[in-house]
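ENTRY TYPE: protein
WANTED: fold as tokens:
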Amino acid sequence: MCHPLAEAGKYVRTESRCGICGGRLLSDGQNAICAACGYVHNVSEVELPTASMAETVAAEVALSVSGAALGPLSWIVGAPIRVAQNRQLNAWIHAVEDRFVTAHRSFNSDDALTMAVFNKLSLGAMQTNRDEKLRLFAGVLLNAGSHSAIPDRVQLIFADMVVRYEPEHLQYLSFLSDPDRWLPEHGYSPGITMELGVLMTATIFAGVEDWEIAFDTMVRELEADGIIASGFAPSVFVGDVVYSEHRLIWDKGTRFLEYVSGDLT
């Protein structure tokens, strides 16, 4: 019986087999989709003699993430979705590989906590279009696992927070944790006479449209999570933040920053 994609004339039957289930692959010249399980392979990947970490892990996650979501969708609609999902998953896995190679570390898939954090971050990777967020996730994964001094449950809580946050959240936390250090690193004196909002648009939210909405949402989320003591309004002068007599960031926020340390941009 001919596969629906072949009937549609988009894919042609090949002699290659799926590395996941062994089913026959159909190809459109750029991608190859398994006629049995529906997993979409990149043609260049299919031709590789051995499976890399990216292919192996992306395959497992893609099946778990996309299988249930597609449900009764037709192959004509489902195939492009799987292609896009596979492309994003590969970008995420390659970010992980690059981070671990740079750190001269190996990914410990035998560690249950590492894999639990990885699974949480993988879902987050499917929900972003920002490469810097993938790099942030990869850095967090490097710090995660049983080897960390941070308790298991806290690591999982922090991983959930990382998925919800944008890179700007982490940059703002870095600013509040040590404004005397952060300001000179970004070309400003701690004693500058400037409104906080002006500083934000020149640094953390540079080039961001409707930055006020993003800033307000970020501050509310950090306050609700018990990370910062006060987010400050954009109209507050930077000096009032730097020399505030009140705490800017709670201990939970400090520990969270330690969890993602080294990956703030």
Notes: The first helix runs from residue 4 to 7.
